[in-house]
Design brief:
Layout: H1 3-30, E1 44-46, E2 52-55, E3 63-64, H2 74-84, H3 96-109, H4 119-128, H5 135-151, H6 154-164, E4 171-172, H7 174-181, H8 191-199, H9 213-229, H10 235-242, H11 258-267, E5 273-275, H12 280-293, E6 302-309, E7 314-319, H13 348-357, E8 366-369, E9 388-391, H14 392-397, H15 401-411, H16 413-422, H17 447-458, E10 462-463, E11 478-479, H18 483-494, E12 508-513, E13 519-525, E14 529-536, H19 548-563, H20 587-590, E15 607-610, E16 616-617, E17 624-629, E18 635-639, E19 642-648, E20 652-655, E21 661-668, E22 674-681
Parallel strand pairs: 1-5, 3-4, 16-22
Antiparallel strand pairs: 1-2, 6-7, 6-14, 8-9, 10-11, 12-13, 13-14, 15-17, 17-20, 18-19, 18-21, 21-22
Helix pairs in contact: 2-8, 4-5, 4-6, 8-9, 9-10, 12-19, 13-15, 13-18
Pathway: Cell wall biogenesis; peptidoglycan biosynthesis
Organism: Roseovarius albus
EC number: 2.4.99.28
Length: 682
């Protein structure tokens, strides 16, 4: 065989071996079993402007946030590539020049000076949580790096690094690092911040600025010096950056709106980012307000605050408790903004609004505040006092019970329940029957329910259900009350004086205190926003001496001041609103009269107040003490139809000559008006 033929044959053999090697290498790389590249990232709850409200850790309690390359400061990315992998955009996953340099430096110095790993190889190690130094590990990283480069583009690989790189402790990824070390997102970083982020992943355990500030500073400055020597950054800029102080401690991740964040996460378990209608700054202010407000109440008490835009129905803030934990007696883990409680007097405005709508009353209609019974139900005012005849508007401002129940008796309790239902409120009845007691708090609602109900009132009678997610299904508004009735009630409530020491501002608001002082409330609105405050014990035990006007109302006004410097003006009266004095009203509206008025005794007719009807009493010396109220003297007392006392001018007496058994006691006044009770005597 000639020399030329032998050379040709040799070249063919070399070529075949080379091709075979490349084919084997390609098949070897193609057969690589890649680790999962779509790792779990922290679920993020964000406000209406994109600000982070709360985040949740991933497995093993690590913080790892999703991030895209275009969400990171470009100067940092440039510094990272220049320092870690200069040929990142040209190699195929392994940089043999860098490996040769690292090997030569190790041989000359007897120790590892530089690693030679590309960013792609580092991603391979991070995804597999593998070692860094031994050759079997390096070989595996090279294989995975080549496979990654075949399946993903450079930006995708860089994104994997930015998501998984370690930055000290349980921080993974550049977003977790910038939030924890600098308190901001990675879009805009200083040169010093960028250099620290380049240096940290090389040795995250020994370069943490909060634990090893000298080592961290030295590592950061080496990065800056390298950038200057390679003319990537100006010398003056790097020198200035070297004097910038390091962060001395990690910042806590935001933990705002914890109850609502938990609810959002449970409702959207597959989403890594959930947007709420909340405003982070307002939420923070109201959580701070809630914590401050509980300093002067018993240790077992909790607080809840909800604020919304009543024109859009968007909830802007929701505080379920003053502290999200169970380390004290306040049971802070319970979301009291959505706990069912008795609303006290806060439903009264809607009774009056329905009365205005039905033509039963007008704000200037006169109504009686006097003792009265509705079958077996005999309500009393909270203070036990009676004001006699007064305008309906004053009865509402004074939160009197008897006028409210008298109106509800005419309207029907079922209609109040229907109004709440049409407003989007799911009220809970203790039984199957809606009685008159629901008007005074005998029904279960949540604070969020009440805010929604008052949002309807503030929105001129149009209901717009509250929402807490921007993409939440929003039903079209529907009319629940006429705009004139809604305005009239709002105008009455706006006439209430603000709590003592509170800056003046026209806020329409109502307070309430449930039976036994178990719940105290304040709900109010201005021309744009509505808010509600609840204070009480989560276990339902009383707060002795607590009243809505004293405890909850100042917090309500303070909440509005945290939102804005002064309230938005309330609307002007609709043109159809009847603005008249009591004397100018049509005759049927001048004085409220129930449908049973023709059969009811006159307000000043005599009333036996002792003994009560149906009482069982023991006779003392054959005489029975009696007492009456109202009526015109002189009085005649009768027992079983027989006069036993005549010409009595006093309103108390002792009836003689009574015997055991049932007796009907009757009193007749000078105008012939009578009152009677039946008692059993022993």
């Amino acid at each position: 065989m000639s020399r030329r033929a032998m050379i040709t044959l040799g070249l063919i053999v070399v070529l075949c071996v080379s091709i075979a090697g490349k084919l084997w290498l390609a098949r070897w790389i193609e057969s690589t079993e890649l680790p999962p590249v779509l790792s779990e990232t922290s679920t993020e709850i964000r406000d209406r402007n994109g600000a982070l409200l709360r985040a949740y850790t991933v497995e093993d309690g690590r913080w790892r946030f999703g991030v895209a390359v275009d969400q990171v400061d470009s100067t940092y990315v440039d510094m990272l590539i220049a320092y870690e992998d200069q040929r990142f955009y040209t190699h195929s996953g392994v940089d043999f020049l860098a490996l040769a340099r690292a090997t030569w430096q190790a041989l000359l110095n007897g120790q590892v000076i530089s690693g030679g790993s590309t960013l792609t190889m580092q991603v391979a190690r991070l995804l597999e949580n593998g070692g860094t130094g031994r050759w079997p590990g390096k070989l595996r990283q090279m294989r995975v790096a080549w496979a990654l480069e075949q399946q993903y583009n450079k930006d995708q690989i860089l994104q994997m690094y930015l998501t998984h790189a370690p930055y000290g402790g349980n921080l993974e990824g550049v977003r977790a690092a910038t939030l924890a070390w600098f308190g901001k997102e990675p879009q805009r970083l200083t040169l010093a911040e960028s250099a620290l982020l380049v240096a940290l992943p090389q040795s995250p355990a020994t370069r943490r600025p909060d634990q090893s500030p000298k080592l961290a500073q030295a590592a950061r400055n080496r990065v800056l010096e390298r950038m200057a020597s390679d003319t990537i950054l100006p010398e003056e800029a790097t020198q200035s950056a070297q004097s910038e102080p390091l962060p001395h401690q990690r910042r806590a991740f935001p933990a705002l709106a914890p109850h609502m964040a938990d609810k959002a996460r449970s409702a959207n378990p597959t989403l890594s980012r959930i947007n709420l209608t909340f405003e982070a700054k307002l939420q923070q202010k109201l959580e701070t307000l809630a914590q401050a407000a509980l300093r002067n109440v018993p240790a077992e008490a909790s607080i809840a605050i909800v604020m919304a835009d009543h024109q859009t129905g968007e909830i802007l803030a929701s505080v379920g408790s003053a502290g999200y934990d169970n380390t004290n007696r306040r049971n802070g883990y319970v979301d009291m903004a959505n706990a069912v409680r008795s609303p006290g007097s806060t439903l009264k405005p809607f009774i009056y609004a329905m009365a205005f709508d039905r033509g039963l009353a007008h704000p200037q209609t006169l109504i009686d505040d006097r003792p009265v019974s509705f079958g077996q139900y005999a309500p009393q005012n909270f203070d036990g006092q009676y004001r006699g005849q007064l305008p309906v508007a004053d009865a509402l401002r004074l939160s009197l019970n008897i006028p409210a129940v008298a109106l509800l008796d005419q309207i029907g309790p079922a209609h109040l329940m229907d109004l709440m239902r049409r407003s989007g409120v799911q009220a809970r009845l203790p039984g199957d029957h809606a009685g008159l007691a629901i008007g005074l708090g005998g029904v279960g609602v949540t604070l969020t329910d009440l805010v929604q109900l008052y949002a309807m009132l503030a929105n001129q009678g149009q209901t717009r259900p509250l929402v807490w997610q921007p993409d939440q299904n929003r039903h079209a508004s529907t009319e629940v009350l006429s705009r004139s009735a809604a305005w009239q009630v709002g105008d009455i409530l706006a006439g209430l004086s603000p709590p003592s020491g509170v800056q003046q501002g026209r806020l329409a608001y109502k307070t309430g205190t449930s039976y036994g002082h178990r719940d105290v409330w304040a709900i109010g609105f201005d021309g744009a926003h509505v808010a509600g405050v609840w204070v009480g014990r989560p276990d339902g035990t009383p707060l002795p001496g607590a009243f809505g006007g004293d405890l909850a109302a100042p917090i309500l006004f303070d909440a509005f001041q945290r939102l804005k410097s002064k309230p938005d003006p309330l609307p002007t009266p609709p043109p159809e609103t009847l603005l008249l004095s009591s004397a100018e009203l049509p005759a049927p509206l001048r004085r409220f009269a129930s449908r049973n008025a023709p059969f009811e005794p006159a307000p000043d007719a005599p009333k036996v107040i002792f003994p009560p009807n149906g009482a069982q009493l023991r006779l003392e010396a054959g005489e029975l003490p009696v007492k009456l109220r109202d009526g015109a003297p002189p009085f005649v007392w009768m027992a079983n139809g027989i006069p036993v006392l005549r010409n009595q001018h006093r309103r108390d007496a002792s009836l003689p000559a009574l015997s055991a058994g049932f007796s009907e006691i009757t009193v007749i006044d000078a105008k012939g008006r009578a009152a009677r009770v039946t008692v059993r005597l022993d």
